[in-house]
Amino acid sequence: MVRLSDKVAEDHREMEKCFNEITSSSDHDHQERFGNQFTWELARHSIAEELVVYPAFEKYMGNKGHEMAEEDRKAHHEAKEKLKKFQNMSPEDANYVPMLKQLWGTLSKHIEEEESHDLPALEAALEPGASETMSQSFERTKMFVPTRSHPSAGESPPFETAMGLLTAPMDRIADMFRKFPQDV
Predict the structure, then answer these.
(1) What pLDDT digit, counting tens, does each position of 5-55 carry?
(2) Which alpha helices (H) appear in 91-148, and where do they start and end?
(3) In a domain, 167, yes or no
(4) Residue 178: pLDDT over 90
(5) Nearest partner of 26 among 91, 75, 105, judged by Cα
(6) Contact (Cβ atoms closer than 8 angstroms) between residue 76 and residue 155
(7) Is 10 a domain residue?
(8) Which domain holds residue 98?
(9) Cα three-residue angle 100-105-111, rounded to 5 degrees
(10) 42, 81, 140, 154 - which has most CB atoms within 10 Å?
(11) Where is the Hemerythrin-like domain (predicted)?
C-alpha cells in the first residue's frame, strides 16, 4: 500500500516533469502536448487535495490543520487562476513559457511547504492504515474531477464537488481533441 504523502509527491514529480519538458523545448507541438498534460495533472491533483487531503488536515490536526488547509487553499486559488490563463494559451504565444514559469513559481513554493511540513505533520497525526486508505481515495477522486482549471466554479465542498461533476464530462470530451504526450 502507498501512503498518501507518497502519492501526492508522485503527482508533484509528474507535474515537474511536464514543466521541464515544456521549458526545455522550443518545439511547439511538444510544448502543447506537455502543456495539456501539465494542465490535466495539476487540475485533477488540486481538486483531489481539496476534497481529500485538506479535510484530513482539519479532521486529524484540529486548529493547526485548519490553518494549514486554509493556507493551502489560498495557494491553490492563486495557482488555479494562473493555470486558467496558461491552459487557454498556445505555445506560439510569446507569453506561454513565461506564464508557465510564473505558475511554477507559485506551485514550487506550495509543493515545498506541503512535502516538507504539511504532509509529514498529517502522516504523524494519522492512525495506522489511514494514510493508505486516503491514498486510494485520493486516486479515485482524480478519476471523477475536472481536467481543466475552473476557479470560478467554487473551491470548497460541496460546491466544488457539484460543479466538478458537471464540468468533468465536458472537460473529458474536449480532452479527446487535445494533443497529449502519449499520442505521439
Answers:
(1) 999 999 999 999 999 999 999 999 999 999 999 999 999 999 899 999 999
(2) 96-113, 119-125, 130-142
(3) yes
(4) no
(5) 91
(6) yes
(7) yes
(8) 4-146+153-175
(9) 115
(10) 42
(11) 5-122
**3-class secondary structure, 46:** helix
Grid coordinates given for 14: 509528474
Taking residue 26's Cβ as centre, other Cβ atoms within 10 Å add up to 9
Helix axes 159-175, 28-48, angle to 10 degrees: 160
The Cα–Cα gap between 120 and 32 comes to: 35
What single-letter amino acid sits at 23?
Answer: T
Report the sign of the C-alpha dihedral through residues 31, 37, 40, 46, in that order: negative
Q: What are phi and psi of 148, to 5 degrees?
A: -135, 165
Number of domains in the chain: 1
Tell me the pTM: 0.88
Q: How far is CA 43 from CA 27, 37, 63, 79, 115, in A?
A: 24, 10, 27, 10, 19
Asked if residues 48 and 59 have their Cβ atoms less than 8 Å apart, the reply is no
Residue type, 83: L
Integer Cα distance of 87 and 81 in angstroms: 10
Q: Is there a domain that residue 182 lies in?
A: no
The rounded distance, in Å, linking the Cα atoms of 40 and 73 is 19
In a domain, 58, yes or no: yes
Give rounded-to-5 percent helix, strand, coil for the chain.
80, 0, 20
Question: Cis peptide leading into 158, omega within 30 of 0?
Answer: yes
What is the Cα 154 distance to its own chain's centre?
15
